[in-house]
Design brief:
The chain is 43% helix and 15% strand. By secondary structure, the chain is an alpha+beta fold.
Length: 183
């Protein structure tokens, strides 16, 4: 082999790492309600992804998750990268809001596991910003709540982060998220 040639397959790990870093930056700089940032953003390396696959399978076996988690675990095994974006739950102290379903922030605070609508909204905008970078860079990606639930179970973003989305990344000749069998 010619030592002056670098084949594409040899660059995938670095490419995923570079794209993931830009995706995380895009998520971090996405607009936030009142300019307050409650997001936790992380890239999960191969060993961490393997732990998530094990947890997803355990969840199905324990009947804590639907069978499609097994299909999603296969996608995670085949993936080249994973980004987790989560938020802790904090009231935003906006007068006359009620978007969370409660009359005001004081009433909402009596229900600490009910998210403030702005926390989830901020996280959604961040996820959208991140996946738009992946799309711009032609990296196949899929947002999977199944992987996010396993990440929450394992406390990967910390115990205070109760709402998480997982973005699986892949650089292959065929999109691994196509032709998935129903779970």
């Amino acid at each position: 082999m010619n030592k002056n040639i670098i084949f594409e397959e040899e660059t995938r790990e670095d490419a995923i790492s570079q794209v993931a870093k830009i995706m995380m930056s895009a998520a971090r700089t996405a607009p936030k309600a009142k300019g307050v940032d409650h997001l936790r953003i992380a890239f999960v390396e191969k060993q961490g992804r393997d732990e998530l696959v094990i947890e997803m399978r355990r969840m199905v076996e324990a009947e804590d998750a639907d069978s499609f988690f097994l299909r999603d675990a296969l996608n995670l095994e085949a993936a080249d990268g994973l980004i987790l974006i989560g938020t802790s739950i904090h009231v935003m102290r906006l007068n006359h809001c009620g978007l969370c379903g409660f009359a005001n922030c004081d009433e909402k605070e009596e229900h600490p596991y009910t998210p403030c609508a702005f926390n989830t909204g901020d996280m959604g905008i961040a996820v959208g910003s991140a996946v738009s970078i992946a799309a711009d860079m032609r990296v196949d990606n899929r947002v999977m709540f199944s992987v996010a639930m396993a990440a929450r179970n394992l406390g990967l973003l910390g115990q205070d982060v109760r709402i998480i989305d997982a973005i699986i990344l892949s650089i292959k000749g065929k999109n691994i998220f196509f032709d998935r069998k129903r779970g």
